[in-house]
Fold each of these.
Amino acid sequence: MSIQTAVHQETISMNQGYQRTKRILDIIFTLLILIPLCIVIVIVAVFIRLDSAGPIFFRQKRVGQNGVEFNILKFRSMYVNSDDLRHREAITKYMNGQKLGESINGDLSYKVVDDPRVTRVGRLLRKTSPGNQD
C-alpha cells in the first residue's frame, strides 16, 4: 500500500512598497548607529594605544560554518608578547578538575582571576563586553 500526496508549492510575494520602505529604514538606522559606534571605536583605540605598546587590534583565526577558517579582529586586551606560562598552568589545572576562579554571579571556574598579562584598558574592555559578563 502506498500513499500519494499532491505536491503543492505556494509562493510568498511581498509588496514592493514594503520592501522599499524596509530597505530605506534599514539604511537610515545603520547610518544612525554607525556614527556613534565609530566614535566609540576611535576612543577605545586611542586608550589602547596610550595604555601599552603594540597594535590596537588582535587578529585571531576561528573556525566557522562547515569548518571554514576566518579571521576576526578584536581590541587587544593583553600586553604584546606576554609569557603564556600562566595560561598553560591554568589550562592544566582546569583539565585536572580544579577551579581557576569564581564569580559572584555564578560559577566561572574557567576564568583566570587577576591575570597580569591583561592591560588596564583590557580589564575595562573585558568587564564591559557583552560576551564576557562576570
Amino acid sequence: MMKDKSIDELIEILETSTNERTRRVAAYSLGQIAIKGDERAISALVKLLETTTNEETCWQAAYNLGKIATKGNEKAISELVRILETTKNKDIRDKALNSLGQIARDNTTAIKALIKLLSTSSTFLLDEFYRQLEQTQDKAVALQNAQNWLRTCTADKLRQRANEWDLSRIEWEDRIALDATLELWEDIPFKNPYYWAPFILTGC
C-alpha cells in the first residue's frame, strides 16, 4: 500500500513539476520501485518522453521503460520507436535500442524501425568492406577493418561518404529518407555493436 502511494506521488510530480531535475529524479525513483508491468508507471514515463525536451530526462525515461514495461507493451514500444527515429542524441538512441531489445523482440513496428537503421548501417559497412577488399585480398581482415571504421566513424565522415555515392538510380522517396536520416546523426552514430557486430563471413 505504501509503495502504491509512493508511485502515485512520483507520477504526480512527473505530471505537475516544471523543474526538469525534479522530474528526472522522480523518473529514476519510479524505475526503482515500480514493478514490472505497472501500467500507471509505464503511462507516466511515456507521457514524460512525449513532453520533455531535456536529454537527461529523456534518457532516464527510456531506460526505465525497458525495466518496467512488459514484453510486447504497445504503448512503450511505440514511444521508444518514436524516440529512436527522431532523437539526435546517440546516448538516448542507444538506450531506446536497448530497451526495445528487452520488450519488443517480436514486435513488427519495432522490427521495421530497427531494419531501417540496420539497412543504413549495412550500406556503409558494405561500402567500406569493398574498399578495404581492394587493399587486401583477405576478406576477414577487410570485414574487421570495415567494422572498426564503422564503429568509430563520425556523422560528418559518414555524410561525406554518402555524398560520394551515385544515387541517381534510387527512388526519390528513398533519397529523401536517406537525407533525413543523415541529418539526424551526431557524434559516432554506429558505435553500438548492434550495428556492426552481427556481420560474419561464411564460405570464404
Amino acid sequence: METIPSGTLTFLFTDIEGSTQLWERQPGAMQAALARHDACVRQAVEARGGYIFKTVGDAFYVAFATAPEALAAALAAQRALQAEAWGLTPIRVRMALHTGDAETRAGDYFGPALNRVARLLSAGHGGQTLLSLATQELVRDNLPADVSLRDLGAQRLKDLHRPEHVFQLIAPDLPADFPPLRTLDYRPNNLPAQTTPFVGRETEVAAARQRLLQPNVRLLTFTGPGGTGKTRLALQAAAALVDEYRGRGVVRRPGADRRSRARRAGGGERDGRCGAAGADAGGDAGGAPAREACAGGARQLRARDRGGGGAVRGRAAGGGAAPQAAHHQPRRAAPVRRA
C-alpha cells in the first residue's frame, strides 16, 4: 500500500492553459496529446517521489515530502513537455509550488495551503512555473547549476487576504518571458480584502457571473432583508469577474452614495456622472432594501453598496442607452435632509 506523505509538504499543481479551446478545435488530436501530457507529468513526479493524490481533467495535484524534490519534478516535467512536438495541439502547462501543512483525509489533502497553491496556479501562464515564498526559501540554496528564481514581487491573489511573494523558475532551455501575472494587481480594483473565507453560495456566485457575462445584461441587483449576506455575495461576484474586465472593479461606500443623492436632488449632480455608471434612489414595493448591484459595461465592472436601499442604473463605457436591470426596482424619491 502506498504511503501517503504527511506533515509539512510541498504541493505541485499543474494545468494545461487553454485546454477547453484546444478540445473544441482539435478533439481528435487532443486525445493523443493529453495522453502524452499525462505520461510526461506522471513520469517526472513519480521518479522524484511525488504522490499524485488527485487528477481533475488535465490537472495534476501532487504532494512531495521535500521542496527540492517538488522543484526538480516541475523542472523535469516542463522540459519534457517543451521537448514534445505538439503539432496542431500546442500544450502549454502552468505549474505552481507552495509549502505548508495540510490535513490528510481519505487519501486527499485539505487546508489553506491547498487554497494558496491553487490561486498561485491560476495567476500563471502556460509554460510558466511559479513558487511561493515558503517554497523559495526551502530551495534557494539547493538550485541546480543552470537554474535560478526570478523575483516577481508580492502579489494579491483572489480570495486570499495575505499577499504572496511570488518567484518564477528560470532555466536556459525553458521560456522565461510571460505576460503579467493574472492577479488582482494586474486587474486594478478597489474591492476590499476580506478577512474571512467565503463559504457556501458558490451556486449564487456562478449564476451572477454567468448573467453578467451575457451581452444584454448590464445590471444585476441583489435584494433581500438586512443581514442575509447581500454585500458579501455581491463583492464575491465582482471578484469572480475581475479578470473579465479591462477596466477597474469599484466599490461605492454607502456614505458616498447618500452624499451623491443629496447633491443630485439639489441640482448639483446628474445621473451618469460617476464614470460608466450613475445611481438612482429606489426600493422595492415591499420595502426590502436593494443593497448591492453589479453593473457590467464594455470595459468596467462596478459594485455598489446602497446603504439606504436602491438600484443602480449604468451606462456602458463610451456611452449608449441606460442598461436594463436584471432585477430592477421601482424608483422612489430620495429624502433630502435640510439644515
